[in-house]
Amino acid sequence: MQRKIRQTQTIVPFGVGAIFDFKGESLVACDIFRWGPRGEKIQSERLAASLGVTEFRSAPTAGSNAWTPSTRGIPYARFPSWLFCQQCRRMTRWSRSKEQEGKAPTCANCPGKKQLVPMRWIQICPVGHMDDIDWKRWAHSQNPSPEAGQCHKEVLVFETVGGKGAGGLDTLQVRCQSCGSRRNLMGITSTGSLRTIKVSCNGRQPWQRWNERVDCVEIPLAVQRGASNVYFPLVHSSIEIPNPSRADANNEIALAVKAHDFFRALLGVNEGGEMFKMMVETLVSEHGVKPEFVKALVRDEKQRAAGRGTAVEATPGDLLSEEWAAFLTDTDNSDDPYFRTRHVDLVSTTPDKVMSSLADRVDKVVVADRLREVRALEGFHRVTPAGSDRLVSVALGHKSSVTWLPAIDVRGEGIFLSLDEGRLAVWEEEDAVRDRVAELEKRLDASFMSARLRERTGPVLSPRYVLLHTLAHLLVRRLAFESGYAASSLRERVYARSSTESGGVSKQAGVLIYTAAGDSEGTLGGLVRQGEYPRLQGTIIETLQDAMWCSLDPLCGENLASTFASLNFAACHACTLLAETSCESGNYLLDRVLVIGSHAVRGYFQDVLEAAVEAAGDGVRGLS
Predict the structure, then answer these.
(1) Are strands 404-419 and 55-57 parallel, antiparallel or unpaired?
(2) Separation between Cα atoms, residue 376 and residue 47, nearest integer Å
(3) What pLDDT is recorded for position 506?
(4) Cβ neighbours of residue 497 under 8 Å, at least 6 residues apart?
(5) How far apart are CA 226 and CA 123, in angstroms?
(6) Of 178, 354, 456, 476, which residue has the fewest beta carbons closer than 10 angstroms?
(7) pLDDT score at 86
(8) Confidence class for position 624, pLDDT limits 50, 70, 90
C-alpha cells in the first residue's frame, strides 16, 4: 500500500530516519541504499563539491492518478513494531511477515478487527540508533520473583489504571496477563530509566535486520516518538548561480589565465584576502578579462579538484561567498534560466530625511526574478544535534558505495538586501552592542545547539549576524501581508561575515528573502514586485514600525531569556518568530532590540525610526 507525501517532504521533515504518522500508522523512512538506482538526477556542482559527492537524486515519484503508471516510491518501515488495540488493549509485536498489501495492522482478538495503534514511547541513543522499548522486560522489572519474565506465554496489555487522577504517566501501565507482573510508566522518560532494567542499545535502525546491527555501548533514552530530540536532520542548500567561465573554459584566454603562475596560487588563497585581490587584479590587467571571469575559473578548478578527491575542496562558507558575489555583481543575466537578477533603487534621487537615513544604511537592493535552490540531506542526529562523529549518514553502512545524496530542486523568486559596511562596522564596535551579543554567545557556547548553529554563524557570533537574522524574520512577517505569499512559503538566507572571522573571507552583510516551493506558488511574481521602487522602502519602514510594538511588551522587549537555553532576547511568536521551515537557524539568535534600539542599546535602524516618527509628528501638526 502506498502512502503519499510531497516530494519536498522526503528531505524535511520526513527524510531518512524520520518518523512519519499517516492515518493512525507510524512509519520511518529507510536509508537511500534501499531506494535502488531510481530517482531523477539533480545537478548542483558547487554543492556536490562542498559535500564530497558525485551527484544528487530526488525521491522517485509514484503515480498520482489512473492514467499514470503505478511506480514504486521510496521505502518506509513500520515503527514502532509494538502496537496495541484500543478496544481490548492487547499489545502485539508486529513483523514484516504479518504485513498485508493495502491494509493497516488490525487486532486478531477483536471481532471488529480494530486497527492497531502504535505505542507512544520508543528508545533512542546519542549515536543515532532507534528501536522499540523492551516492553516485556519493563512489565516484569518490578516483580521480585526470580521467575519473573519467564512466562510460558507472555501476553501484554497496555491499560489505564483508575483512581489515580487523569493525565499522569502513573495512570498508564503495561501488564503481563500470564503472570500478573505490571509496571506503570511513571519515570520512563527520566535519564537512566532503561539502565535500571538492564536495557542496552541494539545498535541498529528500525528498518535494519538483526544481522546489520553494530556494537553500541550507549545507554538508550526513552522518549515519545513525537519528541523534538528524535530527529535532527542536517540539510545543506545552495542557490544556483551562473558560471561565466563555463562556456569559455577551454578557449585561448581561459587557457592563458590558467597557465599563469598566479592562477595556481589562487587555488590555495582564501577569496577576499588582499593577496587574492592583488593576484586577480594582475590577471585582469594582463589578459583583459573581468574579475568575475577569473574568480569563476578558480571556482571551476576547485570543484574539479574536489571531484578528483584532492586536497582542494569547497566549503559551505565558499558557497555563501560565491552567492554573495553573484548578487552584488551587476551583470546581464536575463538569459539565465535559473538565476535572473536586477539591481534596483531603494529611494529616489531626492529623498527626504527618512529615506535619506534609510539609504545610508542599506547599500544595495537586488530583485531575483528567478532563483533555483538545491537542498540536500546529508544525515541526521538523535538526542542532540552535535558532533560530526555522531552524524548518521543517509546511506548508513553503505556510504562508501553510495556516492550520491537525496535532494530536491525548487525554483522561486526573491529580494536581496545588503547593508552599508561602513556604518555597520561602526555600529558593531559600540560597547553596549558588543556586550549584549557577548552574553548571547556565552549562552550559545553552553547550549547543545552550539555545533549546529556555529555552522551558520561562524566561529564567532557577531552582532551583524543577530541583526541580519532578526531583520530577515521581521521582513518575512511583513512581506507575508503585502506580497500575497504565506509566511511559511518564504525563506531566509543570511550572509554575515565579519573581519573577526578567520580564513580571510570577504565581509558580508546581507539577507535574501525568497520563495522556494516545489510548486507554482514559488514563482507568482508578488515578491519581486514588492522589492521594486517605491514599494520596498515603504515595506522596510513598516517592518521597523512593526518591530517597535509587540503585544507582549514590555515583557518581550525587556526579555533577556527567551526560547530554549535562552538563545533569544527580545523576540517571541507575537513579533519575530517564524515557521521552522522558513528559518535557517531554528528560531534561535534573535533580538529586535539590535534592529530598533532601546534605552540601553542603540539599534542599527534606530535613526531611521526616529526620523519617521518626527516626520509623522510634523504631518499631524500640519493638519492641525
Answers:
(1) parallel
(2) 9
(3) 66
(4) 317, 320, 321, 458, 505, 506, 507, 508
(5) 12
(6) 178
(7) 92
(8) very low
Query: pLDDT band for position 250 (50/70/90)?
Result: very low
Burial class (CB in 10 A: 0-12, 13-18, 19+), 334: exposed
What CA–CA distance (Å, rounded) separates 22 from 504? 49
| Vertex 436 angle, CA 430 and 442, to 5° | 130
Q: How far apart are CA 17 and CA 588, in angstroms?
A: 24
Dump pLDDT digits (tens) for 318-373. Answer: 788 889 988 988 777 778 888 999 999 999 888 899 999 999 999 999 999 999 99
* 319 or 201, higher pLDDT: 201
Q: Burial level of 330, CB count in 10 A (0-12/13-18/19+)?
A: exposed
Task: Please report which residue ranges of 362-490 form alpha helices under DSSP H.
Answer: 421-428, 431-446, 450-457, 463-482
Closest CA to 464 of 598, 607, 274, 591: 591
Average pLDDT over residues 64-70: 51
Closest to 38 in 3D by CA, of 15, 12, 81, 71: 71
**C-alpha–C-alpha distance, residues 69 and 63, integer Å:** 6
With the CA atoms of 305, 308, 309 and 314 taken in that order, what torsion angle do they form, in degrees rounded to the nearest 10?
A: 30
Q: Scan for cell 522561486, then name that residue.
A: 412
Q: 3-state class of 339 per DSSP?
A: coil
Query: CA–CA separation, 185 vs 121, rounded Å?
Result: 10
- CA distances to 64, 75, 334 from 59, rounded to whole Å, are 15, 10, 31
Query: Is 85:107 a contact under the CB 8 Å cutoff?
Result: yes
The Cα 342–Cα 350 span in angstroms is 22
> Is 104:85 a contact under the CB 8 Å cutoff?
no
Q: What percent of the chain has a predicted confidence (pLDDT) above 90?
A: 55
The answer on pLDDT for 48 being more than 50 is yes
| pTM of the complete model | 0.84
Cell 516492553 -> residue: 135
Query: Rounded to the nearest 10 degrees, what angle do helices 316-328 and 291-307 cross at?
Result: 160
DSSP annotation string for 512-554: EEEE-BSSGGGGSSHHHHHHSTTHHHHHHHHHHHHHH--TTTT
Helical H segments across 458-521, by residue range: 463-482
Helix axes 606-623, 535-548, angle to 10 degrees: 100
DSSP β-bridge partners for residue 492: 513
Q: What is the pLDDT of residues 516-530, one digit of tens each?
A: 765 555 566 789 999
* pLDDT at position 361: 96
Element (H, E) at 77: strand 76-78
DSSP assignments along 554-606, one per residue: TTTTT-SSBSGGG-BSS--TTTT---TTT-TTTT-S--THHHH--SSS--TTH
